[in-house]
Write a structure and sequence with these properties.
Number of strands: 4
Number of helices: 3
Helix content: 25-40%
CATH class of the domain at 20-98: Alpha Beta
Radius of gyration: 14 Å
CATH architecture of the domain at 20-98: 2-Layer Sandwich
Structural class: alpha+beta
Strand order of the largest sheet: 1-2-4-3
Shape: globular
Length: 116
């Protein structure tokens, strides 16, 4: 179990020290860490001015997808989200449209309809 304890301590540090991109792959995190990681990532992405991000949760049993969607449902930086299309990860990834910093109105365009 020491290996799990090492992972518990290293995973959040790895997320904090990594360069911010428009993609977050949750495969390297334990399920119990994912809600906090996703919430912090979405906040940081919005602050960095990213208009949209892709969160990879994998297809598996759907546990990580449900965790991700629960966080996105209540996160104030999230305008909309949907499962990715076939070319972007299908139901193993979620595309998230972010509210621009300081914006209370609707952005032009958006994720729109379609998707999974």
């Amino acid at each position: 179990m020491n290996e799990d304890e090492d992972q518990d301590e290293a995973a959040p540090e790895a997320a904090a020290g990594a360069a911010l991109t428009d993609e977050l792959d949750l495969h390297t995190f334990l399920p119990r860490e994912c809600a906090d990681v996703v919430g912090e990532y979405v906040r940081a992405a919005q602050e960095a001015g990213l208009p949209a991000v892709r969160i990879i949760h994998g297809k598996g049993t759907g546990t990580l997808r449900r965790i991700v969607h629960a966080v996105l449902d209540r996160h104030p930086a999230v305008r909309a989200y949907q499962l990715a299309g076939a070319s972007r990860g299908s139901w193993g990834a979620t595309l998230v449209e972010l509210v621009p910093r300081g914006d209370g109105g609707e952005p032009p365009g958006g994720l729109g309809g379609g998707g999974a």
